[in-house]
Amino acid sequence: MVTLDEIKIPIAHHIEEFEKHFRGSMKTPVPLLTTITNYILKRKGKQMRPMFVFLSAQVCGEVNESTYHAASLIELLHTATLIHDDVVDDSNERRGYFSLNALWKNKIAVLIGDFLLSKGLLLALDNNEFQLLKIVSDATREMSEGELLQIEKARRLDIEEPVYFEIIRKKTASLIASCCEAGAESVKADEETRARMRQFGEYTGIAFQIKDDLFDYEKSLNTGKPSGIDIKEKKMTLPLIYMLNKVSWAEKRYAINIVRNHNTEPERVAELIRKVKESGGIDYAAGRMIEYREKALDILCTFPDSPSRKALGQLVVFTTERQH
Questions:
Q1: What share of the chain in percent tops pLDDT 90?
Q2: CA-based diameter of the chain, in Å?
Q3: Residue 187, C-beta contacts closer than 8 angstroms, at least 6 positions apart
Q4: CATH T-level assignment (fold) for domain 4-321
Q5: Does 253 have pLDDT greater than 50?
Q6: What phi and psi, each to the nearest 5 degrees, are found at residue 36?
Q7: What are the residue boundaries of the structural domains of the chain, listed by start?
Q8: Short-list 5, 11, 13, CA closest to 307
Q9: Are 56 and 312 a contacting pair, CB within 8 Å?
Q10: What percent of the chain has pLDDT over 70?
Q11: Helix, strand or coil for residue 54?
């Protein structure tokens, strides 16, 4: 499989320059904030979202200052939502590092998230990037709606497939869609081009989230030990939804009872994972993931051939073949 460093080649100098922009976008005279933002910068992830912004921009035109604003704005938003998620989930770890709430407690973590969101707003307003602000604000709203819809449905454990796709479209795909649309907007692409880029990003984001759903089962089946993190959190993922729709009413009730009342018991979780595998749920979800990946690649093929288009296609494939 092609590595992220290889995919990054057409935009490597932009990503390097972006890191300076992003560091600058978090500057503050408050010493505690400086300490915490330095910690955030040290534990940065794969940088896939800035990659989507820069590659989309290069597919549609020439990277410029506005593209850097777009990437910084999205990364500020994404980092803020991750920090708030860790507080909501009471999570002590993120990407192998301690989460902010684990080190500085919830109150400070929430305030840091708010600080980053405000920095994003000011970055857009100070540079008159009103359309970029609209794109990113729409993504923020959709992500919140998706998360709340998931929480509401987790209480009743009654998610059907269309609702599941609506949740992941809002919760995960909207951010990747906004990366691609913002990249196109930053080079002043026309409305039709921006819409195509947005749809490309949405399909990619849906494939990305289904891959995340599959990780829980793949880890369990590869190691023989139940991972079942999503089951413990009562998340109704696509493999599980498929299984529930295939079994008898009694088996469905039994499976839902495990999710609702026995989700921390390793043996019961392992039993449920086995049932999902036997039902064909994992194969079904993998098939749907490929379906959305191909839809994204079909849209990408409507753009002129270039090294950036090739790299963007490789990035889509990477999202569905990554190991973590």
A1: 43
A2: 62
A3: 57, 60, 61, 62, 63, 64, 66, 67
A4: Farnesyl Diphosphate Synthase (1.10.600)
A5: yes
A6: -75, -40
A7: 4-321
A8: 11
A9: yes
A10: 91
A11: helix
